[in-house]
Amino acid sequence: MAGKAGTLEFLAQQVGLALQPLESQLTQDNVLPFLARLGVQFPPDLLNQNDFKSAIHAGATAAGALSALLTQLSTAIESDDEAGILTIGL
To answer: pTM of this prediction?
Structure first.
């Protein structure tokens, strides 16, 4: 990694990349099979709970926003923009 990025920025980038697939996994159709692959079985009735539906929607939305943030972070790192790296990294 070039530029002024440190360990925390590198970790933020890697965690962000790892979490991006949650955008497609945290959907009404995919969430229960996804959780089952992680070893957690939930009853299908869980999908009828509004709080659960709201939570998976919020998670998918947050994961979807990671792409733009990671692009901004990469740009800041490549251009040695220390203030940008810090702001976006936070």
So the answer is: 0.73
